[in-house]
Amino acid sequence: MAARTFSVRAPTPMPGWGLSFGIMLTMLSVVVLIPMAVLLWRGFVGFGAAGMWEVVNRPRVWNALELSFRAALIASLFNLVFGVLLAWVLVRYRFPGKRIVDAAVDLPFALPTAVAGIALTAIYAPNGMFGSALMQSFGLRVAYTEIGIWIALIFVGLPFVVRTVQPVIEEIDRETEEASATLGASRLRTLTHVILPMLAPAALTGFALALARSVGEYGSVIFIAGNLPNVTEIAPLLIVIRLEEFDYDGAVAIAIAMLVISFALLLAINLIQIWSRRRMGAA
Amino acid sequence: MNIDIEEISKDFGTTAALHPVSLSIPSGTLVALLGPSGSGKTTLLRILGGLEFPTAGRVLFDASDATGLSVQERRAGFVFQSYALFRHMTVFDNIAYGLRARPRRSRPGGPEIARRVNRLLSLIKLPDIGARYPSQLSGGQRQRVALARALAIEPRMLLLDEPFGALDAKVRRELRQGLRDIHDTTGLTTVFVTHDQEEAMQLADLVVVMSMGRIEQVGRPEDIRARPGTEFVREFISA
Amino acid sequence: MTDTPAIPARPRPFRPATTEPALVKWSLIGLCLAVLTVLLFAPLYAVFDEALRRGWAFALASLSEPDAQSAIRLTLLVAAITVPLNAAFGIAAAWAITKFDWRGKAWVITFIDLPFSISPVVAGLLFILMFGANSALGMWLVANGLPVVFAVPGIVLATMFITFPFVARELIPVMLEQGRAEEEAALTLGASGWRTFLTVTLPNIRWALLYGVLLCNARAMGEFGAVAVVSGKIRGQTTTMPLMIEMFYNEYLSVAAFTMAGVLALLALVTLTLKSALEWRYADQLAATHRH
Q: Could you tell me which residue ranges the ABC transporter domain spans (chain B) (predicted)?
């Protein structure tokens, strides 16, 4: 057997390897990899883990991190449930205006966050069209409270679950649903025991995407949040505040704390994914 | 159970899938609905199973009108062409599904469900696959699991849509005998849809030849072979 | 056997086994429309309502102010640099990833996706750390007359980071699905590499490319957090349209803020319209997840 030379790439007559790989690696390095490495270097080597822990382990920072992750989880859970429901409605039902509704689901992807921020604030402020109604009927304040943050994050994360679940619903084999009915299951049982488990992996993917997006969200939140330290001050805002004080180490520490928690969460979701795929035998 | 089909017709929009057809199936018979695609045989089967509603006509189960019964109420064991196994459930859970879906008062307990599922697994001669997922089975095994799942609800009849359609010739022959054996053991009135005349002639007690939404001929295989009723039947069975 | 039926035939409407009762169906539709109204349609309406509170003339006048004009120009400039660069990256990355087999591909794809899960504020912070006044590189660049932070290059870099995955993510699945056979055929017919790309690959991916560019552009023009951090928000110099909205808003210039927001909202609506048109018209040439 001839000795094979070690190579990163399998041989192929396809042209353009050097050029395409070169452009990709250069740009990826300049825009993503080197800046990320600088952040991590600055944090773990320059500032040190102990120093970062000291920054993070203060009530104001801790409260901001807790708020960011709690609000993101609440908003993403809402989007998980509502997203599956909306995807179902958009795939299975016919109703007037369906195409417009379907297109509008992507509005949060297309609308700049600052626009969403001031618009949501305008309607949920105590003198806004929904804000005043909620205030008068239920005594509920939305803008400048944590609920306002939830609303902004629900807005931002709305399309993710819908868009991941929609294609899966489209591909459900009708015979599977019919089989459940012929075995005596009610429609509700078919939905909860047969269809929902089939949607779960995609829904979870959408949930993870929405969570990742809303944890770090800044533009749509700061207008509606009120930004009161320890109460409605989100972690990204605290990074901005540290930067404005030229406290770079403080900003780096909070940023790395956010990254660590985010990646832990996403890793957990990924593990659940792998487990559920394996359960289904991943055909 | 006797099944009587009285002047059943079915329109999809402006096209008629079934012209009024009538058919009597004596209890315990193994019936083949034989015909080319578009002959209305699957529509008729789905009407029996409660998956389609006829435009006109009645279906009688043991002389009582079953036309208005929902799918759930019909208790027809239905085996789908794609088998439609629940891929997120083990074989055991697939077979137990119908028992667990029963209302509480008629639902058997856990040990009883396990006993019945295991009995069905031995009936289909696959006693050890309860813990597997459908994706880990061969085509023939899936078909048999689908059959066991349909039998688990103690059906009043067995309906099969092209049960051997997706299988290769060798497995097909084995499973044909398997279906015959299960039919003879359970004594259930069984209706299956096929476009394969050899399959119909070999397996069924009664063959119903269909074409263009009409029944061309009903008879025992040997009678149909000996005396084809129409030109269509003659051509179709000699193909 | 008696003639009396054991089970009475009930004259109730037949419902196919794969559908829900009409009442449930319409309740769910109603619920979805209500939530979308409260969350999506109402804010969109509010933008235009607030912008036109004092009439068209007043709103349009706020756009012709020098600060507003310079913000619009800067946003267009940033998009004009960022989008082509990211499109070039997306095409190169998709070509390298789908036309060749190599080790470490999965890692590279993960890194390309990384910006999706990083806060825009952290993205801004990255470039402050690299090019800011506290870094050697940053001081050297300022000394040589090429400041990055609090200047246009920083805004471009931060925007590029945020929009980095858009084009690549759109092209990779499409090119994977299309395979390599057509390119290989062109090569056997004697076409050069460039000719193969321009005459075979590009026509196959043009709608997917446009789709990615569309989303990339919308995000590039609307980015707020990352740009807010690196720009220094110098009025008339490093203030993009989203930053201008914040400035107007904080100065209680509500009509000016919402008018600028209205311009960006219109851009979003145009983006959505074009995007939907692509999904309906060229579904087969887009990534599978966009097909309806």
A: 3-237
Domain that holds residue C49: 24-53
Q: What is the DSSP letter of B106?
A: G
Total count of domains within chain A: 1
Complex ipTM value? 0.91
- C-alpha C131/C-alpha C147 separation (Å) is 8
CATH of the domain at C248: 1.10.3720.10
Interval C209-242: pLDDT, tens: 999 999 999 999 999 999 999 998 888 899 999 9
Pick the CATH number of B3-75+156-238 from 3.40.50.300, 3.60.15.10, 1.10.3720.10, 3.40.50.720: 3.40.50.300
Q: Are residues C60 and C48 in the same domain?
A: no
Alpha-carbon distance of B61 to B5, in angstroms, equals 9
Cα distance between residue A116 and residue B108, in whole Å: 55
Distances (CA, A) of A229 to A152, A254, A259, A261, B75: 18, 15, 21, 21, 63
Is C103 found in the same domain as C42? no
The number of CA neighbours under 13 Å toward the Cβ of A143 is: 22
Residue A6, pLDDT score: 54
Domain that holds residue A57: 36-279
How far apart CA A8 and CA C101 sit, in angstroms, is 8
Instruction: Find which of C2, C3, C12, C14 to mutate to test the B interface (most B CBs within 10 Å of its CB).
Output: C14
Count interface pairs A-B at CB distance under 8 A: 81
List all residues of chain C from 104 to 143 with a beta carbon under 8 Å from chain A. 104, 108, 111-112, 114-122, 125-130, 132, 134
Nearest-angstrom CA–CA distance, A160 and B123 = 46
Are residues C35 and C136 located together in one domain of the fold?
A: no
The verdict on C81 and C105 lying in the same domain is yes
Q: What percentage of residues in chain A have a pLDDT greater than 70?
A: 96
Query: CB of C120 within 8 A of CB of A236?
Result: yes
DSSP string, C63-83: HTSHHHHHHHHHHHHHHHHHH
Nearest residue on chain B to A282, judged by CA atoms?
B135
Distance from CA of B177 to the nearest CA of A (A): 24
Check if the beta carbon of residue A90 is closer than 8 Å to that of residue A158: no
Query: Chain A within 8 Å of C162 (Cβ-Cβ)?
Result: no
Scanning the structure block, which residue is given the tokens 């192929």?
Answer: A12
CATH code of the domain covering residue A154: 1.10.3720.10
Among C231, C260, C237, C236, CA closest to C248: C260
- Determine, for residues B63 and C12 on separate chains, whether the beta-carbon distance falls below 8 Å: no
Tens digits of per-residue pLDDT, B88-97? 899 999 999 9
Q: Do C39 and A209 touch (CB under 8 A)?
A: no
Closest CA to B203 of B22, B1, B27, B33: B33
> CA dihedral defined by A13, A15, A19, A24, rounded to 10 degrees?
-70
Residue C123 lies inside a defined structural domain of this protein: yes
Q: Under a CB-based contact definition with an 8 Å cutoff, are residues B66 and B6 in contact?
A: no
In which band, very low, low, confident or very high, does the pLDDT at C14 lie, cut at 50, 70 and 90?
A: confident
